[in-house]
Amino acid sequence: MSSSYPQTELTRVRRMAARAHYDRATVQAILDTGWICHVGFTVDGQAHCIPTAHWRVDDTLYIHGSNGSRLLKALADGARACVCVAQVDGLVLARSAFHHSMNYRSAMVYGQFRVVDDEAEKWASLAAFMDKIAPGRRQEVRMPDDNEFAATTVLALDIVEAVAKMRSGPPKDDEADMAIPVWAGVRPLETRFGTPIPDPAMAG
Amino acid sequence: MSSSYPQTELTRVRRMAARAHYDRATVQAILDTGWICHVGFTVDGQAHCIPTAHWRVDDTLYIHGSNGSRLLKALADGARACVCVAQVDGLVLARSAFHHSMNYRSAMVYGQFRVVDDEAEKWASLAAFMDKIAPGRRQEVRMPDDNEFAATTVLALDIVEAVAKMRSGPPKDDEADMAIPVWAGVRPLETRFGTPIPDPAMAG
Prior knowledge:
The structure is a homodimer. Chain A is an alpha+beta fold. Chain A has a single domain, classed as Roll (Pnp Oxidase, Chain A). In chain A, about 20% of the residues lie in helices and about 40% in strands. Chain A contains four helices and twelve strands. Chain A has helices spanning about 25-35, 70-75, 120-135, 145-150; strands spanning about 20, 35-45, 45-55, 55, 60-65, 80-95, 100-110, 115, 150-160, 160-165, 185-195, 195-200. In chain A, strands 1, 2, 3, 6, 7, 10 and 11 form a seven-stranded antiparallel beta sheet that branches. A four-stranded antiparallel beta sheet of chain A has the order 4-5-9-8, with helices on both faces. At the A-B interface, strand 2, strand 3, strand 6, strand 7 and helix 3 of A face strand 2, strand 3, strand 5, strand 6 and helix 3 of B.
């Protein structure tokens, strides 16, 4: 299996092409960074852009939801989707307004979702989702009963047409602006877990 | 002006309707929380979902980019867009796998962008963007010269069809699961600025 995704009409980055990355490791790492993706799709000529939790197993990206979800119905019907996971890593403060920027990592996957009908794949995918949310936890909680399992739709998108785009590092100012006496650099943005908040209903 | 957005065919939330909010203050606060939005739009039947920086002035959401950007060209041509800003606030760990969830705030705006041709609005919007990134900074940096100003396209989306959706608080488990001896609650996710990283090229 190639270590990179092919550049296609949809994924070839034209602007700032140096920021584009097609290697699987980079794309997959960015997909795994995010808790949610945004799914772009079209219904009756109207674009939608819906945030939803996602997870990845090897070369497949999964999302899930209730059977009645409009998002899932449209995607199950074969809508051509565009999935994006993006993370802002910092604000880039330059000496000129024009060169202000953001450091970020984004990954985009194009394709059509399929409904995961195979029960074994569906179980394995939901287990993988639990492992992403809280490793080891599925050994402690009650796993889905038949009704819950049936009420959940899992959709899979095979990652074959994908690209990452990212920026990192300091501002890039014009030479003529370098003497402007203003602080320049990056204000990093960091996401972390805060102190866990126990359910008030938890037996003390 | 009404304090709420009307519920339309596009914005009426069907599932988990209790999580939907149509009041302007809630929608606008969520829009302002994010550094980037995702823009969903369709070109030749293919959906796209592109992350880009955004900012808000009153009832208008702005994005910007280089004149050559495919995103901006498609939107300037009148593509019917869906803009989403979403923030994950925490992982909700329940006693059953099924009731695991995420706390989040999301805002969605539907509509068609317009190119900001009016120079005064364009200047004012770019100044507002600088003020969002770093209040007061535009008094210290070099503001755009004519070429930079002309090379930048600003697009505006009037916020008239919009909705917020959010979840907060502890897990909601089935009564029968309450005695399962597993920690339950919320792992909050917090985004904050880290220690500023000065540009190595900065005069020491």
